[in-house]
Amino acid sequence: xxxxxxxxxxxTKLKAPTxxxxxxxxxxxLNEAPMAADVQEHDGAFHIPxxxxxxxxxxxxxxxxxxxxxxxxxxYAKLGVGASLELLLSYTDENGEKVVDRPFVGACNFxxxxxxxxxxxxxxxSLCIKNAAAHAGKKLGxxxxxxxxxxxxxxxxAEGISGTPLREPDSIMQEEIRAAMERDDxxxxxxxSKIYVIN
Length: 199
Hints:
Layout: H1 26-31, E1 40-42, E2 45-47, H2 50-57, E3 61-73, E4 79-92, E5 99-111, H3 120-134, H4 156-159, H5 171-182, H6 186-193
Antiparallel strand pairs: 1-2, 3-4, 4-5
């Protein structure tokens, strides 16, 4: 895997194995909590920086495939990127007899302006790797923010918004609504009518 620097990555420090065990199994490794030094906080949420995560991934033979990305403009004409990839973790089974290949899918999307411009594609790939790795186990980020995530509410748009005042559409939304009217897009108009005042 190509890296941006020529610096050698430090080896991952693992917790001491449980007494009586001499080898850390894949299951035990993935079920461990990440080391406190590997986790950082940002705006009240936690994440494992990509270099720390890669050090933990080095427990496996790992790689990525099918990295795809697409640029898009949101409703406010701001440029964003959506991306996805497959993270492959390969390891020998508990009996040491066969190689297990496990793929995990990760995706991300964000506005380009939220990162330094020259780093947007590397950021997209890193976020996809982090998202995919979190599916594998606690050591790689699963449940890292379980205590800080708000409880999910029912989607009011799925049931129709009742008692919520409609908003006045801005100029960009007015153009979207006008275009939906011209092409007789009933689905879009129904959605817009639950959010915006349509004249």
